[in-house]
Amino acid sequence: MWCSRLALRQLQRATAKPLILTRAMSTLPRLYITRQIPPEGLKILHESGQVQYELWDSDDVPVPRKELLQKVKGVDALLCVLTEKIDAELMDAAGPNLKVLSTMSVGFDHLSLEELKKRGIRVGYTPDVLTDAVAELTVALLLATSRRLIEATHEAKTGGWGTWRTLWLCGHELANSTVGILGLGRIGVAIAERLAPFKVKKFIYTDMAPRPELAKEINAEYVSFDELANQSDFLLACCALTPETHMICNKNLFSKMKANSIFINTSRGGVVNQEDLYEALATNQIAGAGLDVTVPEPLPTDHPLFTLKNCVILPHIASASYSTRNAMSSLAANNLLLGLRDQPMIKELKL
Q1: Rounded to whole angstroms, how far apart are CA atoms 328 and 125?
Q2: Closest residue by Cα to residue 140 from 182, 174, 170
């Protein structure tokens, strides 16, 4: 049974069971929402009167694949998050009514773009609104890694804090450093803007091609992939995950980096060969790494990377601020409603 009228506080309640909403007006387009999205987006859908919807009412447990394939049957639209694989199997299960997909994410590697294009399904996504939050988290992760803050906290808690020592827990500072950006976009620019006050000496970047307009904003120099590795004291992976960037950060990159360099990844886990990264860190080929994204997610607690003191791993929280997640939710809802009205979306992937 379907509906779009329910008290907002009920929509916010997290359970491990799917919440089914009911509505008498069965002629409205049918929407399935794969996760309990933040309240601002639900409010927009709730007040639009434009859709009848059902959602998987949990923020802790993803909708099981078998359940998802059942729930999408006959829907006109789908609102998903990055944990759901939107592929040919799912589109076949949904059937020909599916015309609009809205993902609450800036990344789209969970979407089968060729299938979506072939079937004429429009796709909305949520870039830009998370730029500030991701940039802030990247800076925080860089500092935590380079200044060994997690290691230091552990030492303080477990009795390792003894007498003052001249080189104990020394790290690497940003002043007079060269910061390299792999994949210069709005997020890369925002990170550089936040790092500049730390007296960074130079910003360099590499991409599929030079991006002079963005580079001008941070006075960054375009360099080759090898030069990025050779020159960077801090190397930040900010690129999208594509066939070209899959595992681009591998032994070839790490072997060319400085022994005192720090590697940071807040893009997608798939851009890194984690076995090669482990080897580079374990042998002190590079000084440290900070990761907000891994493969798989969550990373198993017995993964070798967790055994390293010079590797800081976060559970994919770069966009995790209240304001940003609500903004992403709102944008995803508005993209979807505009798509159903056959109007231009605020942010639409051009397939």
Answers
A1: 9
A2: 174
pLDDT at 26: 66
Q: How many helices (H) does the chain have, and how many strands (E)?
A: 13, 12
Q: What region, left, alpha or beta, does residue 120 occupy, with left being phi > 0 and alpha being psi -120 to 50 degrees?
A: left
**4-34 per-position pLDDT tens digit:** 334 334 434 433 334 444 444 568 999 999 9
| DSSP string for 241-266 | --TTTTT-BSHHHHTTS-TT-EEEE-
Q: Which residues are catalytic?
A: 316
pTM of the model: 0.88
pLDDT on residue 14? 34
Q: Based on the number of CB atoms within 10 Å of its own CB, is 70 exposed (0-12), middle (13-18) or buried (19 or more)? A: exposed
Instruction: List CB contacts of 156: < 8 A, sequence separation 6 or more.
Output: none
| Sign of the dihedral defined by the CA atoms of residues 342, 343, 349, 350, in that order | positive
CA angle (222 as vertex; 218, 228 as ends), nearest 5: 105
Residues 303, 256: Cα–Cα separation, whole Å:
25
- C-alpha distance from residue 163 to each of 34, 158, 160, 166, 305 (Å): 54, 14, 9, 10, 30
Those residues of the chain that have pLDDT short of 70 are 1-26
Q: Is the peptide bond before 296 cis (omega within 30 degrees of 0)?
A: yes
The CA distance from 110 to 341, in Å, is 25
